[in-house]
Design goal:
This protein is an alpha/beta fold and 437 residues long. It folds into two domains: 296 residues, NAD(P)-binding Rossmann-like Domain (Rossmann fold); 108 residues, Dihydrodipicolinate Reductase, domain 2. Helix 10 links the parallel strand 5 and strand 6. Helix 1 packs across helix 4, helix 1 crosses helix 15 and helix 7 crosses helix 9. The protein contains 16 helices and eleven strands. The strands form two sheets. It has a seven-stranded parallel sheet with strand order 3-2-1-4-5-6-11, sandwiched between helices.
Length: 437
């Protein structure tokens, strides 16, 4: 990735296209609509509320990120979506019961204006849902072309100058790359022959990459994380990023685990369970979809603790992850962790975390930030995997053969240093020796 000599201005409207018009998507939309009318604050959004230090601490330069970087303003966003059900964004937000009626009624007209395009849906990939608003083309190659036409039509109808897509749909069943995912040619041939290894999300990703639209995978399945997608993204000059929004329990995990490791405290066991009752919980009640989420949620501790290097502290760590569908909770998820640790002379201790969170409330600012930052990346000339955005993901994509960085604070430092670097400011190391010379 080369430092840009210039970054194109964020002129014109930005189409933010969301495959999956559910609780996360409508909460994001309503929040943006409310924020740009001054009716609510976009709490949790780094691009809207965060600052970034530049230069020495003594220089006192810490501008808001939204003023330092040429980000698209909220007023320029035009939301679009695909879904396998025909309800508009207002009806979805009302049934999701994430937001109070005062909030959704205040932006009723804007939400009513988001009517989903028909979705691509192969039921073997999400077994707990039965779509009624779906495309019916006979081949997966034709599905790609239909999505491409959707993108072009939306951009044209809304007068947008460019687009970005963020997957907000359900978690697909666990899979690994097959021969069809190995190259552009193999994938194109797989689309033509309806290869069963090609999932719905990959069809969306491929259509976006063909249209040079940055694509973000907010779920733990492959999405755009396979060799052919990476190759096409580089060839077409398109940024890709993922996987799986880091919102609740894993956010806490990637903050707490680095603290324990930093002090060389041992961990014998880490038990994590979640209860939630939204559509995500219903989908994850299927073992295949749960497997995708389990792999995403479990990988962080292995990479943070590095048990091969610190065998006496973490080699025998027992890590268990559970997700339980519990309809009474709706979107109000509870993430509970029990950590059995040990310290000086091996004496045992326990740490318990009970995060009574709101799934879509935590995810919405992540969707907004990723849409704006991926649009920025495209205008800066970046392409392929955007590892500098790992801060937002449970299972960050990386270059082939490179291990992912999961430590939340290293991820934040990497992201902010990339922001500094792209506009010609010096990265900050926090060494600080110059203050004492």
């Amino acid at each position: 990735m080369k430092r840009p000599t210039r970054i194109e201005n964020a002129d014109g409207k930005l189409a933010v296209l969301l495959p999956g018009l559910g609780a996360v998507a409508t909460t994001t939309m309503a929040g943006v609509f409310l924020a740009r009318r001054g009716l609510a604050r976009p709490i949790g959004s780094l691009t809207q509320l965060g600052t970034i230090r530049l230069g020495r601490r003594t220089s006192r330069r810490a501008p808001p990120i939204r003023e330092l970087l040429p980000l698209a303003p909220l007023d320029s966003i035009e939301f679009g979506a695909w879904d396998i059900f025909p309800d508009d964004a207002y009806d979805v937000a009302e049934s999701a019961k994430v937001l109070e009626r005062d909030h959704i009624d205040a932006v009723r007209d804007e939400l009513r204006g988001v009517v989903p395009m028909k979705g691509v849906f192969y039921p073997e990939w999400v077994k707990r849902l039965s779509g009624t608003h779906v495309k019916s083309h006979p081949s997966k190659a034709q599905m790609v072309e239909a999505l491409r036409e959707d993108i072009r039509s939306f951009v044209r109808a809304r007068g947008c100058s460019r687009a970005v897509a963020v997957w907000c749909g359900s978690t697909e069943v666990h899979s690994t790359p097959s021969a069809a995912h190995a190259s552009i040619g193999e994938f194109e041939a797989g689309l033509a022959r309806n290869d069963p290894a090609i999932a719905s999300s990959q069809i969306y990703a491929w259509a976006c990459l063909k249209e040079k639209v940055p694509f973000v995978n907010g779920a733990p399945h492959l999405g755009c994380d396979f060799p052919a997608a990476a190759q096409l993204a580089r060839e077409n000059g398109v940024p890709i990023a993922g996987k799986d929004f880091k919102t609740g329990q894993t956010l806490m995990k990637t903050a707490i685990a680095p603290a324990l490791k930093a002090r060389m405290l041992g961990v014998r066991g880490w038990f994590s369970t979640n209860i939630l009752g939204n559509r995500d919980g219903e989908v994850l009640d299927d073992p295949g979809s749960f497997k995708s989420k389990e792999e995403s949620k479990k990988c962080a501790l292995d990479w943070i603790f590095e048990p091969d290097k610190y065998q006496e502290l973490y080699r025998d760590l027992f890590h268990k992850v559970r997700i339980e569908y519990y309809p009474p909770r709706g979107d109000a998820k509870e993430g509970w962790d029990n950590i059995d640790l040990f310290g000086w002379l091996g004496y045992p201790m326990q740490l318990k975390i009970d995060f009574l969170c709101r799934d879509s409330i935590l995810a919405a600012p992540v969707v907004l930030d990723l849409a704006l930052l991926m649009d920025l990346a495209k205008r800066a000339g970046f392409s392929g995997t955007q590892e500098w955005l790992s801060f937002y993901f449970k299972s960050p994509m990386t270059a082939p053969g490179l291990y992912p960085e999961h430590d939340l604070f290293i991820q934040l430092m990497k992201m902010k240093n990339t922001m500094r670097w792209m506009i010609g400011e010096e990265p900050i190391t926090h060494l600080g020796n110059e203050y004492y010379d």
